[in-house]
UniProtKB/TrEMBL annotation:
Name of the protein this chain belongs to: Lysine exporter protein (LYSE/YGGA)
Top-level division of the source organism's lineage: Bacteria
GO molecular function: amino acid transmembrane transporter activity
Places the protein is found: Cell membrane
GO cellular component, one term: plasma membrane
InterPro entries the UniProt entry points to: LeuE-type (IPR001123)
Keywords: Cell membrane, Membrane, Transmembrane, Transmembrane helix
Membrane topology (UniProt): Multi-pass membrane protein
Transmembrane segments annotated in the record for this chain: 40-68, 147-172, 187-205
Keyword Transmembrane recorded: yes
UniProt KW Oxidoreductase keyword: no
């Protein structure tokens, strides 16, 4: 479906983009630091699953509709910002252990963490616009269905991004291991909540742009 030069160029560009710190990476790092390795990995997998929706939307032409209808874009953007703000408030209000306690409070269920990762990604219209601007550059109509090429490229990009986010989760969880107890845990919960609130504010204030 793709010649080796195009595929190599795409994978190089995709890996460079995935290694660039962004909201998804920050979200995974915050989860991993405050709730541990499993929570971080599941968050990364949830974000990867949410990306499937954006890939399908681009292949079906829905991303172009999102870019062409500002009120629709703004509705999705504000819904995503509100969701991140809600996660931030929950993190701020979540009880942390006292200095006398040996164990941190149990984290949210892995199913809930996975769903939150999915929703966080799906409700970020900037991801849809990014795919709309990036993936079609590597589609060659002479090589068959454009939709099939978009799906294949999207899955390659998503796989690369998920691997990067899992590695971030592993590194962040190890760094935060000593911080998930006592007074440090209380501070960490506040920082995590603040990160989610900042991500929500960032999304709420962003303007629609296709590069």
């Amino acid at each position: 479906m793709f010649d080796l030069h195009t595929l190599a160029l795409f994978m190089t560009a995709g890996l460079a983009l995935n290694l660039t710190p962004g909201p998804d990476m920050l979200y995974v790092a915050a989860r991993s630091t405050s709730e541990g390795r499993r929570a971080g990995i599941v968050s990364a997998l949830g974000i990867g699953a949410g990306t499937f929706v954006h890939i399908a939307a681009l292949a079906l032409g829905l991303s172009a509709l999102l870019a062409a209808v500002p009120p629709l874009y703004d509705a999705v953007r504000l819904a995503g910002a509100a969701y991140l703000a809600w996660l931030g408030i929950r993190a701020l209000l979540r009880p942390a252990p006292t200095d006398a306690e040996d164990e941190p409070p149990p984290p949210a269920s892995l199913g809930a963490i996975f769903r939150q990762g999915v929703v966080t990604n799906v409700l970020n219209p900037k991801v849809a616009l990014f795919f709309l601007a990036f993936l079609p550059q590597f589609v060659d109509p002479a090589r068959g269905s454009a939709a099939a090429q978009i799906v294949a490229l999207g899955l390659l990009f998503d796989t690369s991004g998920t691997i990067v986010n899992v590695l971030v989760a592993l590194a962040a969880s190890r760094a935060g291991g000593a911080l998930r107890r006592g007074r440090a845990a209380r501070v960490l919960h506040r920082v995590t909540g603040g990160v989610f609130l900042l991500l929500g504010a960032r999304l709420a204030l962003e303007t629609r742009r296709v590069r």
